[in-house]
User: Which sequence fits this backbone?
C-alpha cells in the first residue's frame, strides 16, 4: 500500500498550533475502493500516530479535528478517513453487504499510516460505530498496534435509540429481499452534545447520513454478538471512555465487554453527565488530558 498521497497542504485554522500541516488524500482498499483521507502532522519529529475511526453516518471531518488540535501540539501525527458509504468516500450511504467491510477500510488506513511513518507507535481512536470497528480490527490483528482508545463505543444500542420491534423485524426481512433499502435511524441529534452549536452543525451537515440500510442493521447485530463473545481474546492495551449520560449507545453493554476482557489490558473511564460525543462536549479538554496521560504511559511502555 502506498503512503498517503499529498494532494495539497494548507495551514489549519488559527486555533491550531502554528506549523501544523493538514493534508488530504486517499487510501485504496483491498477491494479497490478509493477512500477520502486526511491527516494533521505535528511540527518536528512525531512521537506517535493516532488513527481516528468515525461513527455511523458520520465522516472524518467532525470528530477528528478537535482532538487533532490537541494531540498534534503534543507530538502526535493524527490521521482520519471516511469509511465506504460515508462522507466523501464512495458507496450508497450507510449500506454494506457485511459489517466487516468496514474492517477492510481500516486495514487500508492502518497500512497507509504504517507506510508513511514506519516504526512510529500507532494508536487507533474509534468513536461510536468506529469504536466497534477499531475493536474488531484489534481483535483480528494486534500487530503494529501500541494501543486502542474507544470513545462511546457501539457495543450495544441504547434503548432510547433502539428501533421498534416491528421495524427491527422488517429490517431482517428486507435484509434478504431489499438489502440496500434505507430506513431512518432513531438518533436524536440533541443526544450528541450539550453544545447547541454542535447539534445544529450536525443536523445541517450535508456529509452526515440520517438513514441506514436494512442489511447494515442485521450485520451490525451479528458483529455485536461476535465481538462480545471474543472479549477475552483482547491482546492489546485499551482505554475505554464512556459517556455516563449516553442515550445513543448503551454504556451497560460497554461495561459488560470490559468485564469480560482481560483486566490488565483495559482502563475504563466513565464521564458522568456527558453525552455521546465526548470529543464535542464542553468538558472535552479534560477528556483529551486523560487520553494524553494514558498515551504517555503507553509510549513509556513501548520504549521500555
Assistant:
Amino acid at each position: 500500500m502506498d503512503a498517503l498521497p499529498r494532494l495539497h497542504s494548507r495551514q489549519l485554522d488559527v486555533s491550531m498550533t502554528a506549523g501544523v500541516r493538514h493534508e488530504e488524500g486517499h487510501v485504496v482498499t483491498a477491494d479497490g475502493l478509493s477512500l477520502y483521507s486526511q491527516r494533521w502532522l505535528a511540527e518536528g519529529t512525531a512521537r506517535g500516530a493516532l488513527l481516528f475511526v468515525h461513527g455511523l453516518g458520520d465522516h472524518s471531518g467532525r470528530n477528528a479535528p478537535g482532538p487533532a488540535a490537541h494531540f498534534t501540539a503534543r507530538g502526535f501525527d493524527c490521521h482520519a478517513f471516511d469509511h465506504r458509504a460515508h462522507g466523501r468516500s464512495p458507496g450508497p450511504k450507510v449500506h454494506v453487504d457485511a459489517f466487516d467491510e468496514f474492517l477492510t477500510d481500516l486495514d487500508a488506513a492502518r497500512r497507509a499510516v504504517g507506510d508513511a511513518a514506519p516504526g512510529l507507535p500507532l494508536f487507533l481512536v474509534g468513536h461510536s460505530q468506529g469504536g466497534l470497528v477499531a475493536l474488531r480490527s484489534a481483535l483480528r490483528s494486534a500487530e503494529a498496534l501500541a494501543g486502542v482508545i474507544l470513545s462511546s463505543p457501539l457495543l450495544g444500542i441504547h434503548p432510547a435509540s433502539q428501533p421498534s420491534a416491528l421495524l427491527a423485524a422488517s429490517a431482517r426481512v428486507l435484509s434478504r429481499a431489499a438489502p440496500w433499502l434505507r430506513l431512518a435511524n432513531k438518533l436524536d441529534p440533541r443526544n450528541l452534545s450539550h453544545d447547541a452549536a454542535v447539534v445544529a452543525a450536525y443536523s445541517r451537515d450535508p456529509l452526515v447520513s440520517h438513514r441506514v440500510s436494512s442489511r447494515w442493521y442485521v450485520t451490525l447485530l451479528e458483529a455485536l454478538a461476535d465481538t462480545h463473545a471474543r472479549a477475552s481474546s483482547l491482546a492489546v492495551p485499551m482505554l475505554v471512555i464512556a459517556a455516563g449520560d449516553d442515550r445513543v449507545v448503551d454504556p451497560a453493554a460497554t461495561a459488560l465487554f470490559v468485564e469480560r476482557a482481560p483486566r490488565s489490558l483495559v482502563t475504563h473511564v466513565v464521564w458522568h453527565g456527558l453525552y455521546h460525543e465526548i470529543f464535542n462536549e464542553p468538558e472535552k479538554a479534560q477528556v483529551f488530558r486523560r487520553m494524553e496521560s494514558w498515551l504517555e504511559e503507553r509510549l513509556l511502555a513501548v520504549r521500555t
